Amino acid sequence: MSDLQNYTENAPESKSIGFARKLMRGLAVGSIAMAIAAATAGGIAALQYRADAELQPEQHPPLAVTTLPVRFQDQYVTQTRYVGRLEPARQTSLAFERAGLVVSISVDEGTRVRTGDVIAQLDTDRLKADRKRLQARKRELEAERTLAQLTLSRQSDLRKKGFSPQQTEDEATASVARITASIDQVTAQIDLVDIDIRKSVLTAPFDGVVGARNVDDGSVTTAGTPVVSLLETGKPQARVGLPPEVARSLDADRQYQITTDAGPITARMSSIRPDLQTATQTVPVLFDLNSSNGAAFQQIVTLNLETPIRERGTWLPLAALKEGHKGLWSVLVVAAQDGKTKVRTEAVEVLHIEGEQAYVRGTLEANAQVVSKGGHRIVSGQHVALTGG
User: Fold this and answer.
1) Cβ(161)–Cβ(126) under 8 Å?
2) DSSP for 291-307?
3) Which residues contact 227 (CB under 8 A, 6 or more apart)?
4) Cα 316 to Cα 356: distance, rounded to the nearest angstrom
5) Cβ of 255: how many Cβ atoms within 10 Å?
6) pTM of the model
7) 134-143 pLDDT, tens digit each
């Protein structure tokens, strides 16, 4: 009975003690959790403070670009090149007008000669002998004419005195006339021999240089056989084939430029041939060159023609162009936007390209600043800085 009583009396106290213990444990665990949370929050705050205390990286500076202003003009000039050939203004094959033995050739290929210089000579011994014969015959006839004139004078006196008939005087007159005609004929034959003697010496008809030499000393040549070819050097010409419409636009008073391997030479248009070359559909045009500068004949030359094209536009470097969709082109233009210098895109059309420059037209405005190079590094709307032209 006493044990049961003791248990009954002490039971509530034991329950209170257990509850207190549990409560203390919970408070301890809560305190630890709060401490951990406080420590964690403090660590995060410390890291945030340290992060805020560090220097923030600066933003990238705007990209520097080079620009040039748009300068419009009303036309551009195209350079067109046409191929031709350099040739002498006169070129001939020199030949004797008579057959004969060539006794001397005074020139070789490449020899420069002046007008009247001796090129070659034929043997003239037979001609000289024939001339002497004709001169002797002429003297003979002149003697006969002197006698006939004396006879005519005597017959004229006798007829006046009535001792000679008119017939005799007429015959004496006819004899004088016949002998005179024979003298004239012999004189003409002597002149022909003199011509043949002169033409036995072949001379240069103009200043030039000897080309091909076809005959040597000791050769027997026939009339018309080429002895040498002579090329005139004083007036070189260029023969250029041009389209008919281009040929018609040429000005005879204008200076043109012909390029040879010796350098550029100024020239004037000499003539335009009326016939069309069917193979090339061009018209041969001859240009008189001011000099040859030592250029060789028959070499290929180039005629440089400048043609103005009436089209408003501007020149830009090829590096400023960007190829767009379906063959379109664009350029980047720098302009002020929202208080900053930014890039925008403008469309252009390429009209002509010469070297590293392109003549374009499009949506550009006068004096607009076009990015001249380095456009592949930037895009439309990007903030940039100018570095000048």
Assistant:
1) no
2) --TTPPTT-EEEEEEEE
3) 93, 94, 95, 96, 102, 105, 119, 120, 202, 213, 214, 215, 221
4) 9
5) 10
6) 0.56
7) 999 999 999 9
